[in-house]
TrEMBL record:
Its EC number is 5.4.99.25. HAMAP family: TruB_bact (MF_01080). Belongs to the pseudouridine synthase TruB family. Type 1 subfamily. Residues 29-182 form the Pseudouridine synthase II N-terminal domain. It comes from Allocatelliglobosispora scoriae. InterPro entries: PsdUridine_synth_cat_dom_sf (IPR020103), PsdUridine_synth_N (IPR002501), PUA-like_sf (IPR015947), PUA_sf (IPR036974), tRNA_psdUridine_synth_fam2_C (IPR015225), tRNA_psdUridine_synth_TruB (IPR014780), TruB_C (IPR032819). This is tRNA pseudouridine synthase B. The lineage of its organism: Bacteria, Bacillati, Actinomycetota, Actinomycetes, Micromonosporales.
């Protein structure tokens, strides 16, 4: 018997620890019975939480998902620096953090909020002279990464624990722009306080409007006949503002032509006269022009 046709859309996965984002994509390819699967923003193997997966035509939406804001819950450990700036790397230094006051922690985190120039972790996937930074670290090199401007809207401390001699664990929630490294926040706090620091745990709770309440584990998805939890029309309505086209507008846009603008800011989704997804457009140069045409795509 032939496999049923895959549903185009998004899968909101609650990623488990110990898997790479590419591991999750591979699993979703098997569940959705198609190779046309991608993810909308990497999570490190140690991290858990919201990972947006696109299937079929919805993979074309992932470029918009990647750039949205994120929210994380994590634990920063003061008193130890690691090679990877998180708990997966070997300890490379540190100092007794028992004397660090709560007020110093708060001030150190406050200094990292707003628009800041953040140096990514040395084991990031950023390329330096054409080679991934993490590969250079594995080869015993120390890549020099340029600072990047990111926006960290808030860092809220929910608990400070001093349960082990010389170590301080800080539970935080961070709301930030795409491209922010939570590991770097931990590293920089430890450096500022002179005791070293790394990220001990991380869970992503929000990717734009997607959150853990909408996410399913891989085990839960495996029980479904169709793992796509947000078919393409629903996914478009979740990610974008929406415009409904009439018959003539549907014809024009389906053939790659522009529409008259209606004053919607930013990219938005257009649905055809039959209610089917038609395109993602943006208004520029006095016209509404397609960035992605979805009708007839496969």
């Amino acid at each position: 018997m032939a496999a049923e046709a895959v549903t185009d859309g998004l899968i909101i996965v609650d990623k488990p620890g110990g898997m790479t984002s590419h591991d999750v994509v591979a699993r979703c390819r098997r569940l959705a019975r198609t190779r046309r699967v991608g993810h909308g923003g990497t999570l490190d193997p140690m991290a858990t939480g919201v990972l947006v997966i696109g299937v079929g035509r919805a993979t074309r939406l992932l470029t918009y998902v990647v750039g949205v804001g994120k929210v994380y819950r994590g634990t920063i450990r003061l008193g130890q620096s690691t090679l990877t700036d998180d708990a997966e790397g070997e300890v490379t230094g540190g100092a007794d953090a028992g004397h660090v006051a709560d007020a110093e922690i708060a001030a150190g985190l406050a200094a990292q909020t707003g628009e800041v120039d953040q140096v990514p972790s040395a084991v990031s996937a950023i390329k330096v002279n054409g080679v991934r930074a993490y590969k250079q670290v594995r080869d015993g090199k120390t890549p020099e990464l340029a600072a990047r401007r990111v926006t960290i809207s808030r860092i809220e401390v929910s608990a400070i624990r001093r349960s082990e001699p010389g170590l301080v664990d800080i539970d935080v929630e961070v709301a930030c722009s795409s491209g922010t490294y939570i590991r770097a926040i931990a590293r920089d706090l430890g450096a500022r306080l002179g005791v070293g620091g790394h990220l001990a745990a991380l869970r992503r709770t929000h990717v734009g409007d997607f959150d853990l309440e909408q996410a399913a584990t891989l085990e839960e998805l495996a029980e479904l006949a169709d793992p796509v939890t947000l078919p393409l029309p629903a996914a478009l309505r979740r990610v974008f503002q929406v415009r409904d086209a009439d018959v003539e507008e549907t014809r024009i846009l389906s053939h790659g032509g522009p529409l008259e603008p209606v004053g919607i800011a930013g990219p938005y989704a257009v649905f055809g006269a039959d209610g089917a997804p038609l395109a993602v457009v943006s208004e520029r140069g006095g016209k509404a022009r397609a960035e992605i045409v979805l009708v007839g795509a496969s």
